[in-house]
Automatic annotation (TrEMBL):
Residues 640-657 have a biased composition (Acidic residues). Pfam families: HTH_ParB, ParB_N. Residues 304-362 form a coiled coil. This is Plasmid partitioning protein ParB. Residues 8-111 form the ParB-like N-terminal domain. Residues 385-406, 637-657 are annotated as: Disordered. GO terms for cellular component: chromosome. It comes from the Bacteria. It comes from Marinibacterium profundimaris. Keywords: Coiled coil. InterPro entries: Chromosome_partition/occlusion (IPR050336), HTH_ParB/Spo0J (IPR041468), ParB/Sulfiredoxin_sf (IPR036086), ParB_N (IPR003115).
Length: 657
């Protein structure tokens, strides 16, 4: 049966909810944040679609249009909006009292409207600006959104018509179409589109973006931002975008020229400051191309009286800063500020204690390159024709080893104690995973201590029914693998006998009834909680635990992974040394040398949480096995990463530090 509904007008104050409305039980639909756009549209354009109502007790119940009604109520309450009161009448369609399909009407109103095609939406925004003369600001006001959001839609609506037509025909995907907006010029978009579709191959978004990069540099790119001021001063052309960050510097050659000039200036500044013989610049530092170059390094020198005084001051300040950084209540911004200050002071202290030799300065130089969004100066490079062969390598400065020895990794007492705790936790986790072996150890400990007049055979465990207290400066930040493993073991325990309501005798009877395997798990878990904090065992002085750990925990990395909390407590120079010398990542260490300590820590944290796909097998093995020397179980041979292929001499790490 077809229903016709009489047009009518109803005051906003006379509208009420209808029990048949399908959204009555979804109040979140009418929340302010969910109708903000609709409210803005009605305020500017008015109510474009009548409400569907039915008379209920002298009022008008809403069968369809609840979100529009909610927006109208907010407009009435909003004193900044004129023209809306409870007496304002709005257009409605009246459903007869005898209609028996009210719920169906409400449902049909909500589900039969097809969502707008994305391309239609983009083009509609563009037409509002091109045909109706509106601005992004007026459009944003109309739809209750931000100007940036409107400009984002407009950019897609202004893509070349041929490309939009291809997206409508599904010859390309919507994401691929959007990729063309990376360049504001429709002519450039068309040229790239035609070039990429000549062979009728499947076109992907990243292919489009890569092709557009050859047609200019976005001002938001690191290079674009770096050269833009000079580029504009020289009259370089800019393809303007609605969003400034997507505007494009069209003259790629001019961009490259300016970048090289700025790099050369940075190289010359470093050369003059440090006393090198020459300076050069390249956009990309090609490690393979630089393989024939040598390198010299600064060696240790004795600071003069004034320098020593300053060095003592720096040492005192660093100690204070490191204590401040251990404050767990420190805000991130304050912590980062301390980080940067520590980096600056460590660099100043290093400069006071090392210097290049005069002969090395006379034959070495600086090459500046663009790396990770900033200028990086590679110092101490020796051209092939200037290399001095000595035992097959270029020697450097007052000390042949340069700064390698001065950057030797040491472990402060506070860190050492915390690492002991973490090692004990890992050993405890291993014990819970090897209950039979741990049961034997516990019984052996108990029996031998009694039968040998209390002469303990090991200091690893105590059988006195008291859990070992473990202190740690940052327990909340350590890797949680061992804790999770121990918790999993606890959840698997049969504790049916441990009923506080029962007497100890009854509990003991139930305990005795457990099978041997369950008893072993219980004893192993209890023993794990008594393991004392200590480092690697000495085979002679503690042969029992040495062999036991080799059996149950051949690799501590199965229970513990180095993370940012650990790396935060290392000096930047130590981290670079570990990356370059112990993990075989010399190139990465050199690149990171110009980064802040925070960035180096973030790199190490990512490296260990999920080793990069680009690592060689030797590097991957080194990352998988690395831990502080005293943490490693004696059962694993240390991985030698020196065979990992690296493009630079190992000593680069010393220079990077």
């Amino acid at each position: 049966m077809t229903h016709t509904f009489k047009p009518t007008t109803v005051a906003i104050g006379d509208l009420v909810a209808h029990p048949a409305n399908v959204r009555t039980n979804s109040p979140e639909t009418y929340a302010s944040e969910n109708i903000a756009n609709l409210k803005a549209s009605i305020a500017v354009l008015g109510l474009l679609q009548p409400l569907l109502v039915q008379k209920i007790d002298g009022k008008y119940g809403l069968l369809a249009g609840g979100r529009r009604h909610a927006a109208l109520i907010e407009l009435v309450a909003d004193k900044t909006v004129k023209g809306f009161t409870n007496r304002t009448k709005i257009d409605c369609r009246l459903v007869p009292d005898d209609c028996d399909v009210t719920t169906a009407l409400s449902l049909a109103e909500n589900i039969t409207q097809a969502p707008m095609n994305a391309i239609d939406e983009f083009e509609a925004f563009a037409r509002m600006m091109e045909v109706d003369g509106q601005t992004p600001e007026t459009i944003a006001k109309t739809f209750g959104t931000t100007v940036a959001a409107v400009k984002g839609r407009l950019r897609y609506g202004l893509i070349h018509p041929d490309i939009r037509a291809a997206a409508r025909a599904k010859s390309i995907t919507l994401d691929t179409m959007k990729a063309f907006a990376d360049h504001p010029s429709q002519e450039v978009q068309r040229e790239v589109f035609e070039a990429l579709t000549k062979e009728d191959s499947y076109l992907q978004a990243y292919t489009v973006r890569n092709a557009l990069k050859s047609r200019g540099v976005q001002v938001s790119d690191d290079i674009g931002a770096f050269v833009r001021k000079d580029y504009e001063a020289r009259g370089g052309g800019i393809a303007a975008d609605l969003l400034d960050e997507h505007s494009v510097l069209e003259d790629s050659e001019l961009v490259e020229t300016i970048l090289l000039e700025k790099l050369a200036a940075a190289a010359e500044e470093t050369r003059a400051k440090m006393g090198f013989a020459w300076a050069d610049a390249v956009i990309r530092y090609d490690y393979s191309a630089m393989a024939d170059y040598g390198r010299v390094y600064p060696g240790p020198v004795e600071p003069d009286e004034e320098g020593q005084k300053r060095l003592d001051e720096i040492t005192a300040v660093l100690e204070t800063l490191e204590r401040e950084m251990e404050n767990e209540e420190l805000e991130d911004e304050a912590y980062n500020d301390l980080y940067e200050r520590v980096d600056e002071l460590e660099a100043e202290a290093r400069d006071l204690q090392e210097a290049y030799g005069a002969e090395d300065l006379a034959r070495s130089g600086v090459i500046a390159s663009w790396s990770n969004g900033q200028v990086t100066c590679h110092v101490g490079l020796v051209r092939p024709e200037d290399k001095v062969e000595s035992s097959g390598k270029v020697t450097g400065g007052p000390s042949e080893k340069g700064t390698a020895e001065s950057d030797e990794i040491t472990y402060p007492a506070s860190l050492t104690e915390d690492l002991k705790t973490e090692r004990a936790m890992a050993l405890g986790a291993a014990m819970t995973m090897h209950p039979e072996a741990t049961l034997d150890l516990t019984l052996f400990k108990l029996v031998t201590d009694v039968l040998t007049s209390g002469m303990g055979v090991t200091q690893a465990i105590k059988v006195d029914a008291r859990q070992e207290y473990r202190t740690h400066a940052k327990m909340d930040e350590i890797d949680g693998t061992s804790l999770e493993q121990a918790a999993e073991a606890h959840d698997a325990l049969d504790l049916s006998w441990a009923d506080d309501a029962k007497s100890p005798a009854d509990q003991f009877a139930l305990f005795r009834a457990l099978d041997a395997g369950e008893k072993a798990k219980l004893v192993a878990y209890a023993t794990a909680a008594t393991t004392q904090s200590c480092f690697a065992r000495d085979r002679q002085r503690d042969s029992l635990m040495f062999d036991f750990e080799v059996e149950i925990m051949p690799d501590i990395r199965a229970h513990w992974t180095p993370n940012a909390a650990l790396f935060n407590r290392f000096k930047k120079a130590w981290l670079l040394k570990i990356l370059g010398e112990e993990l075989g990542l010399a190139q990465e260490a050199v690149t990171l040398a110009s980064s802040t300590k925070k960035q180096v820590v973030e790199f190490c944290d990512k490296l260990f949480s999920e080793p990069f796909a680009t690592l060689t097998e030797a590097q991957r093995a080194a990352v998988a096995a690395w831990c502080p020397p005293m943490m490693q179980t004696a059962g694993v041979e240390p991985v030698d990463a020196s065979e990992a292929e690296t493009p630079e001499d190992e000593a680069d790490v010393a220079e990077a530090a």
